[in-house]
Design goal:
This protein is of the alpha+beta class and about 300 residues long. It has 4 helices and 9 strands. Strands 1, 2, 3, 4, 5, 6, 7, 8 and 9 form a 9-stranded mixed β-sheet that branches.
Length: about 300
């Protein structure tokens, strides 16, 4: 009997050329995906960092704007504060340097001298509230009388991952220094400028009272964040990411009282800078301005 084969039952496979083409197409697609992956991870990292900056900016802005003194753990996140003071009448610069209690100066690292340790969160808020331009006459030795003050601080993130935080010591365990080195850090520049910032002798006599009130009760507050922070230099190098936040505060500068120190006129250690804070919700002008009120 003669066998007849059905041609429709024959099966054909991929040739070597077709397999090579398939592999080439898959390889091109994988190279494109791998090339986009780092960019996607970079965007995700930047979004995370911006979220942290947004949350920390809200906290710090509220602390400065309201003159809050209840941030007891503020000392756990501050690395250092550097204040550069330049008198308007001369080019001489003075630098005041302060560090947080958990910030360690590495051996061999060039540092400004002298360093002063900030023991209380009120001291930190007082330094951050130093006006950039101040024409007030609140003290004979007060830095800020016709001076330019530049305030720069370095913080570790308040928000973010829990393993980057300094937790209370348990059973006598020491604070792991590796946590502080790996924490997300940023540089903060604080600018507090009176909306009407002219010397007293340049005020318009016709509107003296109104201008005096503006010069002492309305401030522009701007916080500029720069990140990320690289290395352990002082001041450290920072990346190209920055973000600014601005608001206006209706209030006045007041001497900061720290009852724990037992005095009302508190000087920052090793300097003649008065610690001050913004007192918000000012409804009446200061008593010192009453003499300038126009007669009815």
């Amino acid at each position: 009997m003669k066998l007849i084969r059905n041609r429709g039952s024959r099966r054909s496979a991929f040739t070597m050329v077709e397999l090579a083409l398939c592999i080439a197409v898959v390889a091109i697609a994988m190279v494109a995906i791998i090339g986009v992956l780092p960019a996607g991870l970079g965007v995700q990292k930047l979004n995370r960092e911006e979220t942290i900056i947004d949350e920390d900016a809200t906290l710090l802005m509220e602390a400065i704007r309201s003159g809050a003194t209840g941030f007891d753990d503020l000392t756990n996140y501050l690395d250092y504060v550097i204040i550069t003071n330049q008198p308007l009448n001369s080019g001489a610069l003075s630098t005041y340097t302060y560090k947080g209690p958990l910030f360690k100066l590495l051996s061999g690292t060039p540092t400004p001298d002298p360093w002063t340790e900030l023991a209380f969160p009120q001291q930190i808020l007082g330094l951050l509230s130093l006006p950039q331009v101040d024409y007030s006459k609140q003290g004979t030795n007060e830095v800020g009388q016709t001076n330019l003050n530049f305030v720069m601080a370095q913080f570790r993130a308040f928000s973010g991952a829990l393993d980057e935080k300094v937790l209370p010591q348990v059973r006598g365990d020491t604070i792991p220094e590796l946590k502080l080195d790996q924490a997300f850090r940023y540089r903060l520049n604080v600018e507090i400028v009176p909306v009407f910032s002219h010397p007293t002798n340049q005020l318009d006599a016709a509107n003296l009272f109104q201008q005096r009130v503006l010069a002492n009760t309305l401030y522009d507050v701007r916080l500029t964040f720069q990140w990320p922070v690289f290395g352990n230099k002082i001041p450290a190098d920072v990346g190209g990411n920055f973000k600014s936040y601005r608001t206006q505060v209706s209030g006045r500068m007041s001497r900061l009282q720290i009852p724990l120190l037992g005095t009302n006129d508190v000087f920052a250690p090793n300097s003649n800078i008065y610690l001050r804070r913004l007192v918000p919700d000012l409804t009446t002008p200061p008593a010192a301005l009453s003499a300038y009120k126009p007669k009815s």
